[in-house]
């Protein structure tokens, strides 16, 4: 059959296969192998150390435990795979030319002292990646070494489009030294003509010349020590389509910038604001006024973290009220934090969340709740366009909300998330009864790449930084309710 179809058609077929099927094509025939490797190896992931669940990490740090033998064996296996792949890149120019994106996941909490040689091999391989257009470093340890940054600087020059540095799980106040800032500045400047997406940790961006980042389309600033350079970003990034700020800074600094630059980001389509500390009502109101003018917005995610100690008021009402003024809004993330969750709050969500929203993330934080199942079903009946829904909440809402969505999810829902549980959803074509896939593995839930979302970049964006660069990681790490765990693909009676 391979000989009967033109090679160009096989390229199109294999291009749109799921990643696992593309890997299978490597073993089918030489023709399939030569085509598939272009897609399979366009994105390389290198793991330094061994990723562990948050509870394992904190337990190890608090009590100084050494890794178990099985962990040592797994870390050793990964190190050998990394070495073989990196050496192949260095020694095989035709293979190196296939690599367009390099992602490093750095979680060497116990193995950092063993990585000197591995980091050197990584730097050597980066210098051979002359077609590299995207580089991402995720994880707390080791911090991005200057040796790697220098190699990227030497190899990339005017080719990198995406440059991402996320020190996930780092405490916001952790100091990042001057050498890191210097190499970040140099890399940004060297690729300023092509750079379109940039994510940086700390204050690394503030000392860059504005011309270095003025052409960006997407910018994320994660836990800067100050907001001293934020005004420059709002002033000079006229082409920006997406803006993210994860902050622990005083909200008054945000108000000052928004007041001065009310007409910033005229092409904005995505906006994300995640605060570690509570944002008071004045800050949320200014953010709402700023966003209301951005008629092109498709994606909005704002966490205020402000909980009302008593009564039924919501601090972020000014934000909720502008949502229906955004005609293109499809992807929405928000938090609801009353002292007591009531049916009236669900009615507010029903009133203000636009019916055309296709992906919705809501973080609920309430001490008590008297919401009924019927209240939630009324809300979801008005939002049948939902294809992805992710809920983060503690115990008070689990019973009513869980019974509403697990047994009768929205009719077009394809993916459901509840705390740290994620499952694909299908619906019986006759009865519309839901069928759930297995739960995603813990590592897949944590990293949540676009590939793991089956190419849905909007969905990956919605959960980006949550449980990693926000202060609600305790909720995002909680297990889903037992009710949902008992529902598997063999259940017949889900209604």
Verbal overview:
Helices cover 38% and strands 18% of the residues. It has helices at 7-15, 19-25, 30-40, 54-63, 69-91, 93-96, 116-126, 146-156, 178-190, 210-213, 230-236, 251-260, 281-292, 317-322, 343-352, 373-381, 398-407, 442-447, 457-463, 473-476, 482-485; strands at residues 43-49, 101-107, 134-141, 162-166, 197-201, 218-222, 242-247, 270-275, 299-303, 331-336, 340-341, 359-364, 368-369, 388-392, 415-418, 421-427, 434-436. The strands form two sheets. Strands 1-2-3-4-5-6-7-8-9-10-12-14-15-16-17 form a 15-stranded mixed beta sheet. Strands 11-13 form a two-stranded parallel sheet. Strand 7, helix 12 (251-260) and strand 8 form a beta-alpha-beta unit. The protein is globular. Mean pLDDT is 84; it is low at 55-64, 168-175 and 490-495.
The overall number of domains is 3
Q: Rg from C-alpha positions?
A: 23 Å
The percent range for strand residues is: 15-25%
Number of strands: 17
InterPro entries: F-box-like_dom_sf, LRR_dom_sf
Protein name: F-box domain-containing protein
Would you summarize the structure shown here?
The chain has 495 residues and is α/β, with parallel strands linked by helices. 38% of the residues lie in helices and 18% in strands.
List keywords for this structure.
3 domains; Leucine-rich repeat, LRR (right-handed beta-alpha superhelix); single chain; 17 strands; two-stranded parallel ribbon; 15-stranded mixed β-sheet; 495 residues; globular; 21 helices
What is this structure's SSE topology?
Layout: H1 7-15, H2 19-25, H3 30-40, E1 43-49, H4 54-63, H5 69-91, H6 93-96, E2 101-107, H7 116-126, E3 134-141, H8 146-156, E4 162-166, H9 178-190, E5 197-201, H10 210-213, E6 218-222, H11 230-236, E7 242-247, H12 251-260, E8 270-275, H13 281-292, E9 299-303, H14 317-322, E10 331-336, E11 340-341, H15 343-352, E12 359-364, E13 368-369, H16 373-381, E14 388-392, H17 398-407, E15 415-418, E16 421-427, E17 434-436, H18 442-447, H19 457-463, H20 473-476, H21 482-485
Parallel strand pairs: 1-2, 2-3, 3-4, 4-5, 5-6, 6-7, 7-8, 8-9, 9-10, 10-12, 11-13, 12-14, 14-15
Antiparallel strand pairs: 15-16, 16-17
InterPro entries: F-box-like_dom_sf, LRR_dom_sf
Organism: Dichomitus squalens (strain LYAD-421) (Western red white-rot fungus)
Protein name: F-box domain-containing protein
